[in-house]
Structure formats: C-alpha cells, structure tokens
C-alpha cells in the first residue's frame, strides 16, 4: 500500500476532517425521520429508537480495540475498506423493509464509524508534530461536533421531500465520494506497524479501570452525552406526533440543541485553567436547578418554546461537563493516550446508549414534564458519581 505523498498531505488532511463527522452524521441525520420510519415499517417507537442505541453500542465497543487494529494493519487500508462497507450498508438500510436487517446494518455502521474515527485521529498524530499536531487535534474535536449539529437539519428537509430512505442514500453517496477521494489523494501514514496484542490491551485496560478518577471520568462522559441522546430518542416523536410540527421543525430543534452542546464545549475550553472539580460541581448544580425549574414550569406551559429553551440550557451544561472530563481522561495516561481515548469512548458511548434508551423505555416521554424527569435521572446519576468521587478522596 503506497505511503502518503508529501504533495497530497494538505488534501489528505481535509479528507480526514471530512471523515471525522461520519459518526455524528450516521446517528443524527435520520432523527427527524424516526416517526415516519415507525409508521412505514409498522414498528413501535421503541423499535426505531433502538436503531440509534444499537449504533452507539457498536460504536463504543469497537473503540476498545480499534486503536490496536489501525496500529497493526495501517490507517489507509482500513479506512478504504470501512468507507466501501459504509456505502454497501447504507444502501441496504435504505432499501430494506425489515427492521431486523436495519438493526444488523446499524451494528456494522457503528463498528465502521468507530474504526474510521480512530484511524483519522491517528492520522493527525502520524503526519503532524508539536504545535501543528495540537492545532489540528483541537480542530478535529470541533469538526467532530459539527456532524450532530448539521445532520438533523439536513435530515429534516430530506424527510420532507424524499422520505426516510433518502437519509441513508445521502450517507452512501457521501461515503462513496470520500472513498474515491481517499483512494486518489491519501495514503498510508503509519511508519512502523505494531503487533495486535490482546494480552497487552487487557493489561492496560485493567490498570485504567482500577484508576478511580479515570473510571469516574468515563462514567461522567457517558452520563453527560446520555442527556443529548435521551432527547434525540424522544424529541422528534414529541415535536412531530404530540405537538404537530413538521420534520423540518424537528431538524431545526436538533440543530439548535447541537449548538448548545458545542457552546458547552467551547465554554469548557475557555475555562480550562480553572480548578477542575469546583467548575464541574458548579455545572452539575446549575444543571439540576434548570431541570427542577423545567419540571415546575411544566405545570404552567407545555409548548415547543419552553421545551427547547430548557433543553438548550441543560445541553450547554452537559457539553461543558463532557468536554472537561473527556479531555481529562485522554490526558490521564499520556504514554497510552490512544488506548485511554479508545477506552473512554467505548465506555462512554455504551453507557450513553444503555442508560438513555432505558430511561426512554421506562418513562415513555411524550410531554415536557416527562422529558424533565428523564433529564433529572441522568443529572442525579452524575451527582452521585461526583459524591462518590468526593467520598473516595476523603478516605484516601
């Protein structure tokens, strides 16, 4: 497999940034289409919501070993194979009428997303050094968050004019375009391949799981992102089915809340030099206060404006907490940053999918007060993690 040519380094970098949002695009573009999918496929809401949770579980699980895979077999070949399989899986998803086939494709797509994201994250480490590396990795974090912001906005219009299948055809076309451009302009950036050693991975993971602050950090990442996914699972059904708005409006709401998540991330970077635990506790207290206010406000108002206004503030705090803890976890083991990042992402996304889907399944949120209850459960779980962290430190 040919190595990346120096003259193509800039184009390959742009392509890497184009691949990074694939996970967000794959999860969020069809959110406004969920109600219509349930109707056309003759399924319960929970069955369609499960397609998102399945993707996230697969995406998270893959990150446990994706770093070792791309270290052993290279970045370029793995990326090409993944993009090719993306094309096939998205076409199958768009053409099938079987929800079980869609489940199978979502498992495959989650795994492929985990591999390509880890592969492109490693690309920046391979190609750049020093200040440039930090610069591009910082941009990568921002670009990753763009996918969930713009995807439902696009998906709302696709659903309105072309139906739910069009979301997956667009993803197939996007993947095919990236595949062609990657084949032409990119190349292998891994200089020395490392053997795939399962025993080494298990040893490293065991050590990291035993490190308490890192373990609690992974839990906080999962619970924080769970707030976003919780709304994604129920939001479109509430806005379209219960409030009577169109799929385009549902797309705009997701766009607005995606901006809230990004704003929380930027706020986390802005306050990066402030003491860690005090700012996390403050964010958690503010989050709880807003959720309690949302709960009581639900007795007086239950409009799309009140729902989105409260959700916007809550998602800012969630983005803030996630950004701080994710950066902490990745930097906790500087000599094993790749493995730490994979483990953090794996645990966080598996926890996110399990907890958010479980809350939606139990509460079946259809009105604002039920959404507030779901938020409250997630915030209280985060508060308990912080409380345990404080007790553990007091006993050391």
From TrEMBL:
It is found in: Membrane. Its main location: membrane. The chain crosses the membrane at residues 12-31, 46-66, 78-95, 101-124, 136-155, 167-185, 214-239, 251-272, 284-301, 307-327, 339-362, 374-391. It is a multi-pass membrane protein. It holds the Pfam family MFS_1. One of its GO terms (cellular component) is plasma membrane. Residues 12-396 form the Major facilitator superfamily (MFS) profile domain. PANTHER family: MAJOR FACILITATOR SUPERFAMILY, POLYAMINE TRANSPORTER 2-RELATED. It comes from the Bacteria. Keywords: Membrane, Transmembrane, Transmembrane helix, Transport. GO terms for molecular function: sodium:proton antiporter activity. GO terms for biological process: xenobiotic detoxification by transmembrane export across the plasma membrane. Signal peptide: none annotated. It comes from Halpernia frigidisoli. This is Predicted arabinose efflux permease, MFS family.
């Amino acid at each position: 497999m040919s190595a990346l040519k120096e003259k193509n380094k800039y184009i390959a970098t742009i392509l890497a940034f184009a691949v990074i949002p694939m996970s967000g695009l794959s999860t969020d573009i069809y959110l406004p289409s969920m109600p219509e999918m349930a109707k056309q496929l003759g399924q319960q809401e929970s069955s369609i919501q499960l397609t998102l949770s399945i993707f996230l579980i697969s995406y998270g699980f893959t990150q446990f070993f994706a770093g070792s895979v791309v270290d052993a077999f290279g970045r370029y070949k793995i990326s090409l194979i993944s993009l090719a399989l993306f094309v096939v899986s998205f076409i199958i998803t768009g053409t099938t009428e079987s929800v079980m086939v869609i489940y199978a494709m979502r498992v495959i797509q989650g795994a492929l997303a985990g591999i390509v994201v880890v592969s492109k994250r490693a690309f920046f480490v391979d190609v750049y050094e020093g200040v440039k590396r930090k610069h591009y990795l910082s941009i990568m974090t921002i670009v990753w968050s763009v996918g969930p912001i713009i995807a439902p906005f696009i998906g709302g219009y696709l659903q309105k004019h072309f139906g739910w299948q069009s979301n997956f055809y667009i993803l197939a076309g996007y993947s095919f375009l990236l595949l062609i451009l990657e084949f032409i302009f990119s190349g292998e950036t891994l200089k020395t391949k490392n053997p795939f050693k399962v025993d080494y991975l298990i040893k490293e993971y065991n050590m990291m799981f035993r490190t308490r602050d890192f373990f609690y950090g992974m839990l906080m990442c999962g619970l924080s992102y769970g707030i976003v996914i919780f709304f994604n699972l129920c939001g479109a059904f509430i806005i379209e089915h219960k409030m009577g708005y169109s799929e385009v409006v549902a797309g705009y709401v997701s766009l607005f809340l995606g901006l809230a998540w990004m704003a929380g991330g930027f706020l986390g970077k802005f306050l990066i030099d402030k003491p860690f635990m005090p700012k996390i506790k403050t964010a958690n207290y503010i989050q709880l206060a807003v959720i309690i206010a949302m709960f009581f406000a639900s007795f007086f108002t239950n409009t799309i404006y009140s729902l989105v206004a409260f959700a916007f503030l809550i998602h800012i705090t969630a983005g803030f907490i996630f950004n701080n803890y994710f950066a902490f976890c990745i930097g906790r083991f500087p000599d094993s940053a790749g493995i730490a990042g994979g483990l953090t992402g794996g645990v966080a996304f598996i926890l996110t999918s399990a907890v958010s889907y479980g809350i939606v399944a139990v509460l079946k949120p259809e009105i604002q007060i039920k959404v507030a209850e779901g938020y409250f459960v997630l915030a209280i779980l985060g508060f308990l993690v912080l409380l345990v962290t404080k007790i553990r430190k007091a006993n050391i």
